[in-house]
Amino acid sequence: MKARTPKPGRPARLSRERIVETALNCDLRTVTMRDIAERLGVSHSALYRWVGNRDELLDLVGEVVVERILPTAEPTADTWRPWLTDLAWRMHDQFLAVPGYAAHVALPHRHNAQAFGRLRNRVVSAFKLAGASDDLAEQSWYIFGQGVVQWLGARQMGHDLGPDAPRFDLFLGVLLRGLPAREPGS
Question: Which UniProt keywords apply (predicted)?
Fold first, then answer.
């Protein structure tokens, strides 16, 4: 997504980075553009010169979070499971570090196609390296993504997962032992 540039005039007090950093410290479930402008000490109309609306703001936040969670190394046929484990723990740490982010991502909505597309492509690639067909790699991505995001979202929203709810490490271990998805009976 191309960042907007401010109109000519006074030197900018805003930047994409300042806006995103401010948003990363707000509860993303409830934050408004007016809240962000107030925290930045600018008018909300000045903020709109940089970010068109709340959805665009959340897209920018998604780009930063996905950049933070993607491991620098690519998965291989020998490392796909540890790679996915590392990715899931990065998701755990980053999604829960941003107030309301895991809860936001867990709700049905339009995700940032570019950022989440990069995440999806890397995870699908890992499952293909594990021997999954194209279709089963896509199915495995869905199971992995939904499983991790829903667990994190429920935790962040304060839903009681019950007294016997598994710790994230146990949940992740069981999830990854069942992936990549396989055709029934195979």
Answer: DNA-binding, Transcription, Transcription regulation
For residue 11, give the DSSP letter.
P
Assess whether pLDDT exceeds 60 at residue 12.
no
Q: Which of 133, 114, 123 is nearest to 86 (CA)?
A: 123
- pLDDT for the residue numbered 113: 85
User: What letter represents residue 142's amino acid?
Assistant: Y
pLDDT confidence tier of residue 108, bands split at 50, 70 and 90: confident
| Cα atoms in the Cβ-side hemisphere of radius 13 Å centred on 149 | 18
| pTM, rounded to two decimals | 0.87
Q: What is the CATH number of domain 62-177?
A: 1.10.357.10
Cα separation, 183 vs 186, whole angstroms: 6
Q: 11 falls in which pLDDT band (50, 70, 90)?
A: very low
- Distance between CA atoms of residues 51 and 181, nearest Å: 40
Residue type, 89: W
Q: Which two tokens stand for residue 39?
A: 């925290």
pLDDT of 66 > 80? The answer is yes
**Is 172 in contact with 88 (CB distance < 8 Å)?**
yes
Q: Hunting for tokens 């199915």 — which residue is that?
A: 139
Judge whether 100 and 156 are in contact, CB under 8 Å. Answer: yes
- How far apart, in whole angstroms, are the C-alpha atoms of residue 10 and residue 14? 11
